[in-house]
Every structure is written in structure tokens, then in C-alpha cells.
Amino acid sequence: MNLIKLLLVDDDPLVRAGLSFMLGGADDIEIVGEASDGAQVAGRVAELRPDVVLMDIRMPTMDGLAATEALRKRPDAPEVIVLTTFHADEQVLRALRAGAAGFVLKDTPPAEIVAAVRAVAAGEPVLSPSVTQQLITQVTEVGPQQGRRERALERLAPLGEREREVAVAVGRGASNADIAAELYLSVATVKAHVSRVLTKLDLNNRVQIALLAHDAGLLDGVE
Questions:
Q1: Which of 3, 95, 86 is nearest to 49 (CA)?
Q2: CA 18 from chain center: how many Å?
């Protein structure tokens, strides 16, 4: 069994102790280290090479948002799950845009946090694009919407017609099986299209595809 190497990042030692106790009971997760501030993350990641980082979003010197943005720019970046108190939070949305695989609330049941760590380590999303869309609708965005739409459409320009259709379907929260049935493709072909979309757009995960499709206005009026 391959152990999932996990780094805990939170400025509250009691929170770190609680998470360590919770996650330490999973036989496939190894907590390789801790950090008390975002400024320590780069060094700890280089030293410990974790598979997943569980990252608090609010810390005094460097917050989890800045740390996530810096971390996800690395070519060998671990996956990041954001820890937060509020699910409808502008900073959570910005962390997802920066490449975080998802977020969990600090009062999430232990089994669900363990499941989230396992999911991202396996390359699966922690939250569906439909949940991301709900977050978008609850958060007041910063910056001009028109400029964001134009930038998103420009980023999507390299996609072929089929890849664009797949990107929109991912944005709606459809699974690979649902997309395959809708577009009369095999699941393997859908997976290949999703991989190409991620590569062409230099994105990390399906959540970022959903956010980009939303920004481009491709989901307007979509139920």
C-alpha cells in the first residue's frame, strides 16, 4: 500500500493537533510534517515532498491563498485542500482559481476529511463543479466582470469544438459517464478530452475548468 504523505498547515497548534489525531488513524495516510504559516510551506514541501497539503486559509504572515498560489506554480506541486471556516468565502474561490483541488470546512466530520485527502491524492475532485457554481453565486467577485469574461474567452480559444463541449459539460458538473452519454463518446475518449483541455489551458483540475467556463459566460442559463 502506498502511503499518502500529508503536510498540515495551520497557525493554531490546537487545530493541527486535532487534525493530526483525526488523520493519523487512517492506515494509508502519513502526516510527514506541519507548518504554522504559509511562509514556511515552500521549504517544508521541498524538504518533505508531501502528496497533499491541508492548508488553512487565514494565517498571519502569509495566508493560505498566497501560499497556494506560490505552491501550485511549482512543476512538482502537491495537491492542496483549503481549510476554511466559511464555505461561501471570496478567498476560498480565489484559492480554487489558484489551483486548490477543493476545500473542507474545519467542522467537517473526520471521515469526510480523510475521504477528501484520499480523493485528491488519487487525482479526483474534492467538490463537484456544481458546488463551485453555488459558491460563485454566493460570493461577491472583485474586479470587472466584462474584463474577466473577455480574458476567459481568450484562454478558451485554443480548444477545439469537441474540447469546448466537454469543458462546458464539466462546468455543469457532469461526470465523465454523463458527458460520454450526452456526446455519444466512450468514457475513455472523454477522459482524453479532459486531459487535453487541462494541458492546453494549463489548468490543474476540473474545478478550474468549471470556473473558467463560468467566467467565459458559457454556463449562463445552464441548469
A1: 3
A2: 23
